Amino acid sequence: TLWGAATVHVLRGETTRSAPQRQGEDERRDHVLGKPAASTKKKNEAPPLSGERKVKESFPHHRKKRRRTKRTPTAAPTRALAAGTVFPFSRRRRKATTWKATTQLYFRVAPRKDLENFVAPLLRSLGLVETRGMDWDLYVGLQFKPEREHNYLLAPEGALISSMPGLKETLGDKEAFARLWRICVDDGGLCEWTVPSYNFAHKVYNDTPSLAVEGGALELLEHLPRHSPLPSTWIVKPQRRYLSLGMHLATLTKDSASSLANLARWASVEVPAAETKRKHHTEQPGEFTIQRYVERPALLGRRKFDLRLWVLIASLDPLSIFILDVAFPKVSVQDYRFAADTLQEKCMHILMMVSEFCTRHVQSFPVYPFAYPATTLSRSFQLNLFNDSASELNNTWLRWQTELWPALERTVLAPLLLAVPELRRHEQRVFQNFTTKRQHRFALLSPDAVYDADANRWRLEEINTNGLFQLGADDPDQKTFHRDDGYTEGWLHVVGATGFPLRPSYQSRLDARLDDFCRRSSCDDQARQALERSFHQSAHVSAGWYRLYPGRFPLSEVSTDLDHLHHAFLAENAAFLASLVDDDVDETTTGAGAGATTTS
Length: 600
Hints:
Largest sheet: 8 strands, antiparallel
Number of strands: 20
Strand content: 15-25%
Distance between the termini: 72 Å
Oligomer: single chain
Structural class: alpha+beta
């Protein structure tokens, strides 16, 4: 059955939107950001913690004040090499800061464990106050679904929201990521930032079950020889499953792609109409994305691995993107061997790290023959990436900084720039009648990347828009594979969750520079405010965060006038910004007066 682009909404499973029933202020607040868990007042209940307002603590173990430990990633192998390394690893403000909120700010988090157990206590430690009402200055949660886009209009004026209209539907969902690659190919772009992907779905036409291919099955048969030599291996991903559940590998041969009948026969076997186990059933069964599998990935020792990155879209207009200078390896528990008899080994190919499923099949302990690398700066990661010789560690480190990491930056940035026009159209659609009702929206993305040794380049597997906000466990004494060394606190400072506490120390000089720039460039008040906020974001980078765009790469073809003003202002004031960061390296903050600093 041919399936045209006009019916793409069927695959996405969108439902008819209906306006929420607003009966009273309490029901309206419950509907906006999810109804909070009901709680009953108990006898002899402990008083609320300081820093909270009318909120009962849900987790008693958080009441005990713990000593916060802030470890920094492994240093460079040699002091001489560290001094000569290239951007971004030569920046000085590497450790987590002790900045506090300068004014009384209120926050609210979505009802998810990582947000309630980790992000909320962190925000309280930074001086923010939690609230259950609609008087918050910061909301940290998941991306709003299409049927709840009215939340943007109900949010307080000038608030910070960790959601952007259309972000998940544009590049976050598995089918959206495949669609983005198809758009790139059809436009004749260089689309090597990922591998070919196509969407399949089981549908019913005229009471007859059919298997549909987005864009058309005939077009798929024409596409395959140009973009994926056959035979090839594909990873089949259920579109409504997470944590790599329900995925498997399948081999597509030339004979299977020779005709529609053969393709339908292959897809009917490899793309099931529904999950076999009832507990795995989803709301839209039978919807799958197939993505070409990287058959020869780079190995860590003898194990396959991929990298989880953190990317922050701090602003969409002007486009402002930050990235964390470390990635988090996810390493499989089995030695890698690509062969026909190992395609069903999920713990080798699909399930990275020690999943509950894989622990039942592990025969030897310890699971890893090397110390598990917490980040890409860990010594064990650099030592096992290309060789097993400690004498070659410096060469590996240098190659990582000068070649592999810049290539990873370009790979991550490409799909984001491709998605910007569509994201801006979503913004215009949501706010077309409310031009004065504006908030500051941001998004924390978690791309997964694997290195293709055959093509000598990084490939993105997907971009998570609702990824975990937490690294490690709630208890800092509990050992985990990954540990948050101030990374979450770092992006909170960048987006302005603490009100930009360093602003008083340079605001007068910044105003003079803005006045001079706008006088020469004829920027209006709205553009001036956007430039000022972007400068504050750059001045508050810490814990390994740095600006990726604009500045590291040339402006894209879809850049607006504000994007050009943004790039010009940052380039003109780069030296001034660098001096602020250098001056702040040895500064300390005291008490509530976070703006008052002294230089040692």
